[in-house]
Amino acid sequence: MLAIIKMKPGIVLYILIILTFTSCGLFNPDLRYRPKSSNEYYFPPISSEFKNKQAECIRLENYPCDFAKPNDTLGDFVNEWYSKHLISLKEPILYNQVGKGKKILRFTHLGTWSQPYSYRIENINGKITGTYNKTKGLGGYDAGRRIKHEEKTLKIAEWNSMLSKINEGFWNFTTHDPNMIFDGEEWILEVLIDEKYHVVTRNSPDVYDGINYAELCKKVINTYRE
Asked: Is 212 helix (H, G, I), strand (E, B) or coil?
């Protein structure tokens, strides 16, 4: 049964005004940072074949349709959202570097009402480099310009410790968050090790039943900070 909640006209009008302003912010990304094509997306896009299968299932009303997205691919809306922030953070695309001998870990944090930031740690022939970037935007919609950029050299022991933690279970995490949350913080962790690439995204995992993943992301942050 559907629950019907009666509200006074003034309250309804107030809610509609709030929804109008917030939807303009949350669902209309800043065009200055919009990728020009799917080739500029920072994450593998879902294939046209998969999209067509979903559309055909809906057209034929052949329910239940399989809306589970393949691992390591993101839908256009989320891909564009994440990508525009990584562009403004001046970060490189990682997934298209598979097979080029790269060893990179990157954690990106997009809080709805907080400034986006990223930590990238790279192993180049045994030399470990950490990079921290931050913008003045808001993670929910406004990419903004980069306001902080730091680089530092880390110890190989710190890299090995972090990679050991990654190998304990990260590769088995599904890419997509099983929870549907409309606010909070996007925690995005990418790992590229030679021939392997995997991305996992969760919303506020430290709050919504994702403590193991949250600890792994914090491990990346702390590796840079220590």
From this structure: helix
Threshold 0.85, pTM exceeds? no
Q: Is residue 24 part of a domain?
A: no
Count, residues in the chain: 226
- The per-type count for the chain, helices as H runs and strands as E runs, is 5, 6
Angle (CA) 161 163 169, round 5°: 115
For the chain, what is the domain count? 1
pLDDT at 68: 64
CA dihedral defined by 34, 37, 41, 44, rounded to 10 degrees? 150
Average pLDDT taken over every residue of the chain:
83
Nearest CA among 135, 164, 161, 138 for reference residue 148: 135
Residue 148 belongs to what domain range? 38-225
Q: Is residue 7 part of a domain?
A: no
Q: What is the reported pLDDT for 26?
A: 39
| Residue from 217, 215, 184 nearest 199 by CA | 217
* Under 8 Å between Cβ of 28 and 141: yes
